[in-house]
Every structure is written in C-alpha cells, then in structure tokens.
Amino acid sequence: MKANALIAKIEINAPIEKVWALWSNPEDIKQWNNMSADWHTTSAENDLAPGGRFLYVMALRDGSFHFDFSGTYDEVKINDFISYTLDNGRRTENTFTGINPVTLTEVFEPDETQPLDMQRDFCQAVLDSFKAYVESKA
C-alpha cells in the first residue's frame, strides 16, 4: 500500500455475518453501492475469492455518465479482511473488526488525477450508504 493511501471508516450496528453477506452479494451491492441518490449501480458481478474478479457498473441516474469499477481479489479472509487490486493497478484493503457492531475500515490508494478530498468523500459516502442499507435490514 502506498504511503498516500486514504482511509474511510464506519461502524455498523449488525452482526458480522450479515455485514459480510450484504457486502459480497451482487444483488445487495446494487442496492447500496452509490454515493448519493443521483447514482446507482446498474450491474454487479462478484467472485469473492483470491484471484476472483468483480465488476460494478456505476452510473448517474440521468444516464449522462457511467463507469466500471473492476478488479481482482488478492486476499480474502471471511468475516475479517479483503484486499484487491483495481484494473488500473491501485490497491484497496477492507478490514472488518468486531462481531456486533462491526467497524469497516477501507484503506485505498488514490487516483493521482482526482482531488484527494473528493475521493475520500466518495468512498465515505459509499460506506455510509452501505451502513444505512445493512441497518435497514436488521
């Protein structure tokens, strides 16, 4: 992980088994993977295993912009840790601590072409959306 890595963190009031399941199931990913009501995930594929691939297609709801968020899992420890490498070479680590509540910490290498605050806020907003989704399922 590069020294300029960014961090986003949330505490989720739910058991780790539920957090893990909702984080990794493609149908659930489509529900929570957004940073605001203006965005949505139109498609999600997820093979959560070392060497497995993921692809989330994120888009503005008005259809004016979309992008693929895709990569390969490097390490997966169930209910504990996920690391992956995006197709552009940037790395991310997700750590799940606690059993209920669960703290989810995401450490990620930034895109050098975008403002750091914007990237951190984007990631934090997605985590906040995930927290709201999980807690609504409790």
Concise account of the structure shown:
This protein is of the alpha+beta class. The protein has helices spanning 16-24, 26-32, 116-136, and strands spanning 6-12, 39-46, 53-60, 66-77, 81-86, 91-97, 102-108. It has a seven-stranded antiparallel beta sheet with strand order 1-7-6-5-4-3-2.
List the helices and strands and how they pair.
Elements: E1 6-12, H1 16-24, H2 26-32, E2 39-46, E3 53-60, E4 66-77, E5 81-86, E6 91-97, E7 102-108, H3 116-136
Antiparallel strand pairs: 1-7, 2-3, 3-4, 4-5, 5-6, 6-7
Explain this structure:
The protein is of the alpha+beta class. 27% of the residues lie in helices and 40% in strands. The chain has a single domain (6-136), classed as Alpha-D-Glucose-1,6-Bisphosphate, Chain A, domain 4. A hairpin with a 4-residue loop joins strand 6 (91-97) and strand 7. The mean pLDDT is 95.
Give short descriptive properties of this protein.
138 residues, alpha+beta, Alpha-D-Glucose-1,6-Bisphosphate, Chain A, domain 4
| Cα radius of gyration in angstroms | 14 Å
- How many domains comprise the coordinates? 1
**Distance from first to last alpha carbon:** 34 Å
CATH architectural arrangement: 2-Layer Sandwich
Instruction: Give the helix proportion (percent range).
Output: 25-40%
CATH fold name = Alpha-D-Glucose-1,6-Bisphosphate, Chain A, domain 4
- Compute the number of helices: 3
Order of strands, main sheet, comes to 1-7-6-5-4-3-2
* Major pleated sheet: 7 strands, antiparallel
Instruction: State the oligomer.
Output: single chain
Count of beta strands: 7
How confident is the prediction overall: mean pLDDT? 95
Give the CATH class.
Alpha Beta
